[in-house]
Design a protein that fits this description.
The complex is a heterotrimer of chains A (313), B (279) and C (434). By secondary structure, chain B is mainly alpha-helical. Helix content of chain B is 78%, strand content 0%. Helices cover 48% and strands 16% of the residues of chain C. Chain C is globular. Classes of the chains: A mainly alpha (313), B mainly alpha (279), C alpha/beta (434).
C-alpha cells in the first residue's frame, strides 16, 4: 500500500529535488497549464463574461444591446414570483435527485456487497447501460410509458382497475415523473462509483473487525462507511451540481417545461428564454444566478476534497 | 466480509428487482425497433413481435447515409478525446506535481468551467465559429468542445496523478530528467490505465452529445453525426414521428458506444472509478 | 520619339476599346453558379421527396443556380438556428417560417420585403395570380414580408370502422360540437373510448381554433396599440367548451403526438389536426380513415387559423437574392403547388388548381380527405402571433393558460383573464394600424 504523501511533505521534497537538480523554472507549471487554460478561457470564460454583460441589456441575438436595463434586471428577476417558482422547482428536483441518484445508489451498493463477485459484474454492467446510451434516445422510450391512453403505465393501472393517470400533465406528478427518467439514466454510473468506493476499503481492516467479533452491520457502520466518506462526498457534489443538467433532456423531450411551467427548472428556463423566446438578456441574467449559486457550491466541494486527500488512515 | 445466506438471498432479490426496472425501457427500445410499423400502435404493450421485423432497419439504412454519419461521429468523438488528453494531461500534471502561487485560483477556474451550463457557452461559441468560417465542419465541432469539457479530464487525472509515488519522481529527477521527460516518460506510461479510462468515458459522452453537433453541424448533411441524423430524420412533430424508424435509428446510432462499453467494460469501470474514489 | 508616342496612343485606344467590349461581357450574366440555401421542416416522410423533386426541376430550368436544402425537425429549431446564422453573418436564402413567428420576424429580423424583390427583379405578374387575402397573410406593419406557402387547415380525421361499430353512420359524421357530444355519449357507452381529440402544442394553433370558432379573438388593435382580447366572454366560452368535452370523457388533454397515437391505437374515434398530416396518417392507419369538417360551435361560424408556413428571403447578396426570388416563384408555381399538395396535404394557394385536370383535379377526386381540406380553406384566418421582442414569450403564456384550463386546474375565466393581463404587459407599446 503506497502511502499518500502529504502536500507539505511533497513540497519539501520538491524543493529539495529542485535544488538538487538545479532546476528553478517557476514558470513551468504555468506553461503546462497554458493550453488547457487558453481553451477554457476562450470557450467558457469569455461566454460567461458575455453573459454577465448581456444580462444588463434587453435584446435578441441579433441586437443584444437594443435597450439598456442595468442592475434593475436583477432586482426584477429576484423579486419575480415566476422566478421564485422556478427556484423552488429546481430545489425539488435536486431533492429527488439526491434521493434517487445519491442515496439509492449507495444503499444498493451496500446491499451488493453481499453477493458474489460474478454477480456483481453482471449487475454493474446492466445498471450502467442507460448511461451509455444517448440521452435523447434513451428518453424517447419513456414517452411511450407515460402516454395517457396507450402507454405502459396506464395500461397496467387499467388492468388493476385504477383510473388512468395523466402523468405528464398533472402538476403534482410531473416533476417526480421527469426526475424518475433522469435518475434512471444516471443511476448506474453513481451506483458503480459507490460500489467501487465501498469495495476499496482495505480487506484487512474489515477482517480485523470481524475477528474482533463485530457482525456485518457493525462492520458496515463503523469501518466501511467512515472510509467511504470521500466517495460519498464526490457523489454528493456531482449530484448537486449536475443534477439539473441531468434533467434537461428529459424535460425537453417529455414536457417542454409544462404543464404551465410546472416541470421547468433553472437550467430549462435559461434554455427556454435563450433558445425559444429569444430573450437573451433575461436568459443571461438567469445564467448568472445559476453560476453564482453553483459556483459557490463547487468551490466548497473543492476545498473539502482537497482536505480529504491529505487524510492518511 | 461474509453475509449470511438469508442476507444474500434478500440482497439478490432486491438487486434483481432493480435490474428489471432499469432494463425494461431498453427492452422496449430494442423491441420496438423490430416491430412492423402497423404493429407498433395496434399492440403497444408487448415490446416484441415475432418474428423480428427488419422493415425499420431497412428503411433506416436506406434513408440515412449510415457509414458517413458514423465516420463523422467517430472523428468528432475521437478528435475531442484526443484533444482533451493533450490538454488535460499536462494540466493535471501541473496541478499534482507542482506547487505554485495561483494554484488554487486556477483549479477553481477549471472547476467553474464544469458548472457553466451549456446554454451559456453554446451560442457564443457558435457565433465565433461562424466568424471563422468553421461552421458545418468537424473541426468547428471539436475545438470549442475541448474548452467546454477539458475541466473534467483535468480533475480526474489530477486525482490519479496525485497518488503517484513521489520516490519515482525523485529518482527520475536525480537521474537528470527534466519535467517534460518526467511527465511523458515516467508518469504517463505508468498511468495508462486511468488515462485510457478517462479517454473512453470522454469518447462515449461526446459520441452521445446531440445539441452541440446539431447546432454546429446540422446545416450540411456532410457534417451530421449519428445522433444529429437521428433527430433530424425521425423526430419531426409536424408530420408525426415515425416510431419504428426512430427506434431502429436510435439502436443503430447507439451501437458503437454500447459495443465499446461491453468490450472494455472492466477497464472502464475499474480504473475510472478508482480515480473518483481516491478523490 | 514620335513613333513610340503614336504607338502608345494607338495601343491605349485599342486597349480601351477592348476593355469596353470585354468588361461588359464579363460582368453581364455572371456565369459563375450561385448557390442558395433553402431551409425547411420537411423530412423523408413529410415532404422531403417533394422538396428534392422541386429543387431538381428548378435546377434543370436554371443551370447556374444551385439549391442546397437544409432540413429541421421543427420551426422552433429552425428559427433558433436562423437567428444564430444571421448573427454570425451567414444568413440562409429562402426559409420556411412558421406562422407563429410572423410578427416576431416582421419586427425583429432582417428579411427582404417582397416589395423590394419585385422592384429589383420584377414579378408583378407573378404576384397578380394570387388572391389578395393570400398575399395579405404574411403582412406585418403594412409590409409584405414573405409569400404564404404551406397553408394547412384543421380537419377532423376519423375512424369509420369504429364509428360503425358504435352504431353511428360513418357517411354522416357529426358536424357540430353538440352532435359530437351526443356521439361521444354513445361512443363512451358502446366502446368505452373517446370520441374526438384535439391535440395541442406551444404554438396556440388549437387554442385559437376554439376561441375564434366561439366568436372570440386573440388580439385586437385598440387605439393604435395591440391588446390581448381573449378574456372576452366568447373566448372563455370557447375554451370552456373544450374543457367540458375533456371532463365528460369525450375528449383528451393531449399533445398532437399523443392524440395521433390515440387515433391509431383505436382509443379515439376522431382526431382534429392539420390537413398537412394527411399523407402521414394515411400511411400509418390500418382502418377506414376518413375526414370531415371542423365542428361548429353553436351559431358561430367556424373560423380556424391557417397553419403551416410562409417563405421569407434573407439573402443580402444581389445575385443570391435574385436566385432566391426565382426559386420562390418556382415553388409557388402551379407545378410547384401540385407537387407539394400531393406529397404533403397542404392546400394549394393558386385558385383553380384543384379543378384543373392538368394539375390537381384527379388527385383530389381520388382523395376525398384532401377535398375536405379545400372545403375548409375559406374558413381560414391568419394564425395569430404576438408582436414585439416579447412576442414569443407572450405566446408561451397563452399556452400555459390553455394547459391550466384543460387540466382542470383553473377555470377558463380565471386563466384567460390572468394571461391577458400578463400578455398585455409583455406586448405593451406595440403599435398597430387600425
Amino acid at each position: 500500500m503506497t502511502a499518500h504523501p502529504s502536500l507539505a511533505h511533497r513540497v519539501k521534497q520538491l524543493s529539495v529535488a529542485q535544488m538538487l537538480a538545479g532546476v528553478g523554472n517557476r514558470l513551468t507549471p504555468y506553461l503546462y497549464l497554458a493550453p488547457a487554460l487558453f481553451f477554457i478561457g476562450l470557450f467558457v470564460l469569455w461566454p460567461v463574461a458575455r453573459a454577465f454583460y448581456n444580462s444588463l441589456y434587453d435584446g435578441n441575438l441579433l441586437f443584444p444591446y437594443r435597450e439598456y436595463v442595468g442592475p434593475e434586471r436583477y432586482v426584477d428577476l429576484l423579486t419575480n414570483e415566476r422566478f421564485h417558482q422556478i427556484l423552488i422547482q429546481s430545489a425539488y428536483y435536486l431533492v429527488l435527485m439526491l434521493a434517487g441518484a445519491f442515496a439509492l445508489p449507495i444503499l444498493l451498493a451496500i446491499v451488493t456487497l453481499n453477493v458474489t463477485e460474478r454477480e456483481i459484474g453482471i449487475f454493474q454492467s446492466v445498471f450502467f447501460l442507460p448511461t451509455v446510451i444517448a440521452a435523447n434516445i434513451a428518453v424517447s422510450v419513456w414517452i411511450w410509458f407515460y402516454n395517457p391512453t396507450g402507454g405502459l403505465f396506464n395500461t397496467v393501472l387499467k388492468a388493476f382497475g385504477a383510473e388512468p393517470v395523466v402523468w405528464l400533465r398533472d402538476k403534482d406528478l410531473v416533476i417526480p415523473a421527469v426526475a424518475l427518467v433522469a435518475i434512471w439514466k444516471q443511476f448506474g454510473f453513481h451506483y458503480l462509483i459507490a460500489l467501487a468506493g465501498l469495495k476499496s476499503v482495505p480487506k484487512d481492516l474489515t477482517e480485523a473487525a470481524a475477528v474482533d467479533g463485530a457482525n456485518n452491520r457493525t462492520i458496515t457502520r463503523r469501518v466501511i462507511l467512515p472510509l467511504f466518506g470521500p466517495t460519498a462526498l464526490f457523489l454528493l457534489v456531482i449530484t448537486l451540481i449536475q443534477g439539473l443538467e441531468f434533467t434537461f433532456v428529459p424535460i425537453e423531450v417529455l414536457t417542454g417545461g409544462g404543464p404551465a411551467g410546472a416541470s421547468s427548472n433553472l437550467i430549462y428556463s435559461i434554455y427556454q428564454e435563450g433558445f425559444r423566446t429569444f430573450r437573451v438578456g433575461l436568459a443571461s441574467a438567469q445564467s448568472v444566478v445559476l453560476i453564482v449559486l453553483f459556483g459557490g457550491l463547487a468551490y466548497v466541494q473543492y476545498r473539502m476534497l482537497e482536505r480529504n486527500v491529505q487524510y492518511d488512515r | 466480509m461474509t453475509a449470511s445466506a438469508s442476507e444474500r438471498l434478500a440482497s439478490r432479490t432486491i438487486l434483481l428487482f432493480a435490474l428489471v426496472l432499469v432494463i425494461t425501457p431498453l427492452v422496449y427500445l430494442v423491441g420496438l425497433s423490430f416491430k412492423a410499423p402497423e404493429g407498433i400502435f395496434s399492440n403497444p404493450i408487448v415490446p416484441f413481435s415475432w418474428p423480428l421485423d427488419l422493415t425499420n432497419y431497412r428503411s433506416v439504412l436506406q434513408q440515412m447515409d449510415v457509414p458517413k454519419f458514423f465516420l463523422n461521429s467517430l472523428i468528432y468523438a475521437g478528435g475531442v478525446t484526443l484533444g482533451q488528453l493533450i490538454l488535460a494531461i499536462p494540466a493535471a500534471f501541473a496541478f499534482s506535481y507542482y506547487d505554485f502561487r495561483f494554484k488554487n485560483l486556477l483549479m477553481s477556474i477549471v472547476l467553474i468551467s464544469l458548472i457553466v451550463p451549456f446554454v451559456v457557452t453554446y451560442v457564443p461559441n457558435y457565433l465565433l465559429l461562424a466568424r471563422w468560417g468553421l461552421l458545418n465542419s468537424l473541426a468547428g465541432m471539436i475545438i470549442p468542445m475541448l474548452g467546454i469539457s477539458v475541466g473534467f479530464g483535468i480533475f480526474l487525472l489530477r486525482q490519479h496523478f496525485q497518488t503517484f509515488p513521489q520516490e519515482v519522481f525523485d529518482a527520475a529527477r536525480i537521474d537528470g530528467a527534466n519535467s517534460w521527460q518526467v511527465l511523458w516518460r515516467v508518469l504517463v506510461p505508468s498511468s495508462l490505465a486511468p488515462i485510457v479510462s478517462v479517454a473512453i468515458y470522454v469518447f462515449i459522452i461526446t459520441w452521445n452529445r446531440f445539441i452541440w453537433p446539431l447546432l454546429v453541424g446540422g446545416g450540411d448533411p456532410a457534417s451530421y453525426t449519428m445522433t444529429v441524423a437521428v433527430d433530424i430524420y425521425y423526430a419531426n412533430p409536424e408530420s408525426g414521428a415515425n416510431w419504428g424508424n426512430l427506434m431502429a435509428a436510435s439502436v443503430v446510432s447507439t451501437l458503437p458506444s454500447l459495443l465499446l462499453y461491453i468490450a472494455l467494460r472492466k477497464q472502464i469501470l475499474r480504473t475510472f472509478i478508482e480515480g473518483a474514489v481516491k478523490g | 520619339m514620335r513613333r513610340p508616342k503614336y504607338l502608345l496612343k494607338f495601343a491605349a485606344v485599342h486597349l480601351i476599346l477592348a476593355l469596353c467590349i470585354v468588361l461588359p461581357l464579363g460582368t453581364a450574366g455572371a456565369q459563375d453558379p450561385v448557390t442558395i440555401e433553402y431551409w425547411n421542416i420537411n423530412t423523408d416522410t413529410f415532404g422531403g421527396p417533394q422538396v428534392e423533386a422541386l429543387i431538381a426541376s428548378f435546377e434543370e430550368a436554371n443551370p447556374n443556380i444551385n439549391v442546397e436544402p437544409r432540413s429541421f425537425s421543427e420551426y422552433q429549431v429552425l428559427q433558433q438556428t436562423l437567428e444564430t446564422a444571421i448573427a454570425g453573418g451567414n444568413p440562409p436564402d429562402v426559409v420556411q417560417t412558421g406562422y407563429p413567428y410572423l410578427n416576431y420576424v416582421g419586427t425583429s429580423l432582417p428579411y427582404v420585403p417582397i416589395r423590394e424583390l419585385v422592384e429589383k427583379y420584377g414579378g408583378e405578374e407573378f404576384l397578380a395570380q394570387f388572391p389578395q387575402n393570400i398575399l395579405d397573410i404574411p403582412v406585418v406593419g403594412g409590409e409584405q414580408i414573405g409569400m404564404a406557402y404551406s397553408l394547412s387547415v384543421p380537419v377532423v380525421y376519423y375512424n369509420a370502422d369504429l364509428m360503425r361499430e358504435a352504431g353511428l353512420d360513418p357517411d354522416n359524421p357529426p358536424q357540430t360540437i353538440e352532435e359530437w357530444r351526443e356521439a361521444g355519449e354513445i361512443i363512451k357507452n358502446e366502446l368505452g373510448i373517446h370520441a374526438i381529440v384535439w391535440g395541442y402544442e406551444q404554438d396556440n394553433w388549437t387554442t385559437q381554433g376554439f376561441i375564434n370558432s366561439a366568436g372570440g379573438d386573440l388580439l385586437a388593435c385598440v387605439d393604435g396599440e395591440w391588446r390581448a382580447v381573449f378574456d372576452s366572454e366568447e373566448a372563455i366560452n370557447g375554451m370552456q367548451t373544450w374543457r367540458d368535452l375533456i371532463e365528460a370523457g369525450y375528449s383528451l388533454d393531449a399533445s398532437n403526438e399523443e392524440a395521433r397515437q390515440a387515433l391509431l391505437a383505436g382509443q379515439t374515434v376522431a382526431w382534429v389536426h392539420s390537413i398537412a398530416a394527411r399523407a402521414g396518417i394515411q400511411r400509418d392507419a390500418d382502418f377506414d380513415l376518413r375526414a370531415t369538417v371542423y365542428p361548429q360551435n353553436g351559431d358561430n361560424p367556424v373560423r380556424v387559423p391557417g397553419g403551416g408556413n410562409f417563405l421569407t428571403i434573407y439573402s443580402q447578396d444581389p445575385a443570391k437574392q435574385e436566385a432566391a426570388w426565382k426559386f420562390m416563384q418556382h415553388l409557388l408555381s402551379p407545378e410547384g403547388f401540385t407537387e407539394w399538395t400531393i406529397g404533403t396535404g397542404y392546400v394549394p394557394l393558386l385558385p383553380g388548381l384543384t379543378e384543373d385536370p392538368a394539375y390537381l383535379a384527379d388527385f383530389v377526386a381520388e382523395n376525398p380527405i384532401q377535398q375536405v381540406g379545400m372545403d375548409m380553406l375559406e374558413k381560414a384566418v391568419t394564425w395569430v402571433s404576438f408582436p414585439g421582442p416579447n412576442g414569443l414569450a407572450a405566446g408561451l403564456r397563452l399556452h400555459e393558460a390553455a394547459e391550466l384550463i384543460l387540466s382542470g386546474q383553473e377555470s377558463a375565466e380565471v386563466a384567460l383573464q390572468d394571461a391577458a393581463f400578463e400578455i398585455n404587459d409583455l406586448i405593451a407599446g406595440e403599435t398597430c394600424s387600425g
